[in-house]
Amino acid sequence: MFIIFKRLFDKRIKSKVSIIPKPIFYVKTMGMFKLVSKSKIIVTADDNEIQNEVKQNIAEYLANILSASTGFNFEIVLIDKTDLSNYLSNNIILCIDKKESFLDEAYIINIDKKCINITACEPAGLFRGVQTLRQLFSESIESKSLVKDRKWKIACCKIIDGPAYEYRGLMLDVARHFFNKEAVMRQIDHASLYKINKLHLHLTDDQGWRIEIKSRPALTEIGSLGSAYGTNPGGFFTQEDFIKIAEYAAKRYIEVIPEIDMPGHMNAALASIPELNPDGKLAKPRTDTKVGVSTLMCHSDATFKFLEDVIKEIAAISPSKYFHIGGDEADVTTLSEYSYFFERLIPIVKKYGKTTIGWRPYDCTDAVDGDAVVQNWFLIQDGFYFIKNKKLKTILSPAVAYLDQKYNKNTRIGFKWRGLISLEKSYDWYPSKISPATDILGIESALWTETIVTEDDIDYMLYPRLLANAEAGWTAENLRDFSDFKKRLKKHFARLDVLGVKYCDDYN
Ligand code: TNX
User: Fold this and answer.
1) Which pLDDT does position 104 carry in this prediction?
2) From the CB of 289, is ligand 1 less than 6 Å away?
3) Which residues pair with 261 in a beta bridge?
4) Does the beta carbon of 291 sit less than 6 angstroms from any atom of ligand 1?
5) pLDDT of residue 99
């Protein structure tokens, strides 16, 4: 009898736990932890500076989320590790332990009847652990308003977790259609729940220039007006906006990587600055979505003077060590111009302290070597694709991570030049099968926005596929399984509903 009861009970608890991306190890133990009005968030670390960082970025963040729905006020208490035994009852403990020799973003969660303890060796690990903790509560914990008459219980458990890949990115194209900083921050919030840690902003393209360059005001006075198909009036980030976005992301342990796409995809600049054009006259603005139509003059000093102004200003406001220099679809640039271009450009990027990332085929040029990173979107499903064997660190963006592609023929927006990308396709792929595992820095989901105009459109294309891609980046390949993912995902729709994410439900 007891055994039957226990089984039923186990099943009930088990069916409630639905963590995405899947952690390395989860085991349920006996009993339940209950969050109560006197629960506190306890922060402990050996180092004062780190303790303060954890308080500001993680404890306050967690307190905000939990207090809105529970109505409790969660005092945050900084303590010395030696006092920990006095602070166990009912509390959430965030603990930095440098002695734990795991990766930066790894963490351990121990939940017993008395307390929740999240331990990591770096704040980023605690932040990832907090995202898991959110998912252990019922979805109503995400509510921005008070949820009455609810018991905030979690089944006791132990979780050990850490990422498969260090780079787990989302690319957002704000050039084809512009999205303002509030819209970008909202996406940062949702992506961080699924442990995404890079936000690559595609800031410029033929249809629009979206970042203020103070020494070149025409870029935004002219180049930011308009969008693909002329569907909206465009817009741009001031440098202040960009700094705010990067700070907001950094508090969520997400690094913002700026991209200026060159030497192709440059029409918005050519339409703003006369001396970038062979005849010294402004190019016509473009609202069509043809690619491979524009190029900078690769042998021109005016071009490099312009690029240095741009790189210098962006490098100064961007905390990331990376600078993405595009390099894709330069179809009207000859091969020798293309090679010369990167030979002259890359030292400028280095001069301002940044490491380049570029889309394939920039890696084919001799200038690209060493710690440069390539973003490979030419990937084919079966078989590696080496060029020159440089063993560059690689970010994988195969078709299955192109979330601007339709799910199926009913999808109301999106392209299909890379095929239809159902939820299953976006989940069921294995990075090490398409690139040598030792070269993989990570993976990135790409959201090009030719057909994506509103925030609802972004949600519709990203969700739920971003969860599938996120698991491909975070969870070790041998632990992944689509049918298990689908079961977990089912429960996430309720969470996404509470968060107000307008996901697509026709995703097969
Ligand atoms: C290809 S993939 C592009 C973009 C387009 C996208 C549309 C790559 C590096 N470039 O310019 O927006 O296709 O799917």
Assistant:
1) 86
2) no
3) none
4) yes
5) 77
Closest residue to atom 6 of ligand 1, CA basis = 448
Tell me, in angstroms, the distance from the centre of ligand 1 to residue 80's CA: 52
State how far the Cα of 103 lies from the Cα of 109, in Å rounded to an integer: 15
Distance 253 CA to ligand 1 centre (A): 27
Ligand 1 atom closest to Cα of residue 405: 14
Q: Whose CA is nearest to atom 5 of ligand 1?
A: 448
Distance in Å, CA 404 to ligand 1 centroid: 9
Q: Which atom of ligand 1 is nearest to the CA of 265?
A: 11
From 448, 450, 451, 461, mutation site for ligand 1 pocket: most ligand atoms within 8 A of C-beta? 448
Q: Whose CA is nearest to atom 8 of ligand 1?
A: 328
Residue carrying structure tokens 């390949």: 477
DSSP secondary structure code for residue 435 in this structure: S
Whole-number pLDDT of residue 98: 85
Q: Which of 288, 329, 415, 420 to mutate to test the pocket of ligand 1 (most atoms within 8 A of CB)?
A: 329
The answer to whether 253 and 192 have CB atoms below 8 angstroms apart is yes
CB atoms inside a 10 Å sphere around CB 468? 31
Low-confidence ranges of the chain (pLDDT < 50): 1-15, 381-384, 386
Q: What percent of the chain is modeled with pLDDT above 90?
A: 89
The pLDDT value recorded for residue 389 is 60
Q: Give the pLDDT of residue 437.
A: 82
Q: What is residue 81's predicted lDDT score, i.e. its pLDDT?
A: 93
Ligand 1 centroid from CA 447, angstroms: 9
Looking at residue 9, its pLDDT comes to 44
Residues 456 and 295: their CA atoms lie apart, in Å, by 33
pLDDT of 380 reads 56
The pLDDT assigned to 487 comes to 97
Q: Is 37 exposed, middle or buried (0-12, 13-18, 19+ CB in 10 A)?
A: exposed
d(CA 227, CA 289): 10
- Report the C-alpha gap between 95 and 57 in whole angstroms: 14
Is 413 a pocket residue for ligand 1 (Cβ < 6 Å)? no
* Cα 220 to Cα 234: distance, rounded to the nearest angstrom: 10
For residue 304, give the amino acid letter.
F
The whole-number pLDDT of residue 11 equals: 45
What is the greatest pairwise CA distance in the chain? Answer: 88
CB 287 within 8 A of CB 226: yes
The pLDDT value recorded for residue 4 is 46
Q: How many CB atoms lie within 10 A of CB 430?
A: 12
Using alpha carbons only, give the angle 477, 483, 489 rounded to the nearest 5 degrees.
Answer: 95
pLDDT value, residue 16? 66
